[in-house]
């Protein structure tokens, strides 16, 4: 599961995934890549499945053979340094090229996702209008061009919920607070909450609201968090360990030690039990949406 000497497996799993995609884009087989690098084929396989840490020099050599851009090469070399870290925060900023995002890659590979958000509707459930206002608030002075790109990326992520083949299984609890905070104005909120009502009716999504009347519950202590789980292998074992992601103002924290995952699983059970049922939650969301419509 997790190598205690190197901490979280998240960065090396993600690095392996990016390197595999680059190799496949270059139309190189594992055998051909190994011959070019003068490595064994098992070594390429271990790298691409995130089983080993990598030196930045090795990553540079792989990127050169795979034809990666200088910007992406530098980003992956930086990620390689994190494969040896004992614990880490990532705050890539402007050095990461557009589309290179650790969490988005993990999210796309996940088979199920469990969310608790007490302050804001998570990006996977946001409408374009809501996302636009949130991003503009987060990045003061952002240009319209960059804003449009970030909104498009956020909306593009959401296809994992409605794709025909194996849509993501999602369980989410929102605090009643996020329904009543008027972000973007009344019409934006009315549209956003109507979108939540629609999503809550999809067979792969279970959405609940924890009411303010519930008082203290585990989510008050934990803050927002995501639990990602990945497809099983043919023998029923996990292809990758479950991963906790907690978003912060300057970066995201990733945890995948079994004890950490168990703690968050237990916290989510408490939040789920404190919440309204799916039917009652849908009624509440629709009721609040109506209040925005009425002005």
UniProtKB/TrEMBL annotation:
InterPro entries attached to this UniProt entry: Cro/C1-type_HTH, DUF5753, Lambda_DNA-bd_dom_sf
Gene3D superfamilies: lambda repressor-like DNA-binding domains
Domain of life: Bacteria
A family per Pfam: HTH_31
PROSITE patterns referenced in this protein's UniProt entry, alphabetically: HTH_CROC1
Domain HTH cro/C1-type: start-end pairs: 19-73
Name of this chain's protein: Helix-turn-helix transcriptional regulator
Biological source species: Streptomyces litchfieldiae
């Amino acid at each position: 599961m997790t190598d205690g000497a190197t901490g979280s497996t998240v960065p090396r799993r993600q690095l392996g995934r990016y390197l595999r995609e680059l190799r496949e884009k270059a139309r190189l087989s594992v055998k051909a890549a190994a011959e070019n690098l003068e490595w064994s084929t098992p070594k390429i396989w271990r790298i691409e499945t995130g089983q080993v840490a990598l030196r930045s020099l090795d990553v540079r050599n792989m990127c050169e053979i795979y034809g990666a851009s200088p910007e992406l090469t530098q980003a992956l070399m930086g990620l390689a340094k994190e494969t040896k870290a004992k614990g880490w925060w990532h705050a890539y900023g402007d050095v990461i090229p557009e589309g290179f995002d650790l969490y988005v890659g993990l999210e796309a590979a996940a088979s199920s996702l469990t969310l608790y958000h007490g302050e804001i509707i998570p990006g996977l459930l946001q409408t374009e209008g809501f996302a636009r206002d949130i991003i503009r608030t987060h990045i003061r002075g952002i240009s319209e061009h960059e804003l449009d790109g970030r909104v498009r990326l956020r909306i593009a992520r959401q296809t994992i919920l409605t794709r025909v083949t194996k849509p993501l299984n999602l369980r989410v609890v929102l605090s009643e607070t996020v329904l009543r905070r008027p972000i973007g104005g009344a019409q934006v909120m009315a549209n956003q909450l109507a979108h939540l009502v629609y999503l809550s009716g999809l067979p792969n999504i279970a959405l609940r609201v924890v009411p303010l009347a519930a008082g203290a519950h585990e989510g008050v202590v934990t803050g927002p968090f995501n639990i990602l789980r990945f497809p099983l292998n043919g023998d029923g074992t996990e292809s990758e360990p479950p991963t906790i992601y907690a978003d912060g103002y300057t970066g995201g924290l990733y945890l995948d030690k079994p004890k950490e995952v168990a703690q968050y699983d237990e916290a989510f059970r408490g939040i789920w039990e404190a919440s309204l049922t799916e039917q009652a939650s849908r009624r509440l969301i629709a009721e609040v949406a109506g209040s925005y419509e009425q002005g």
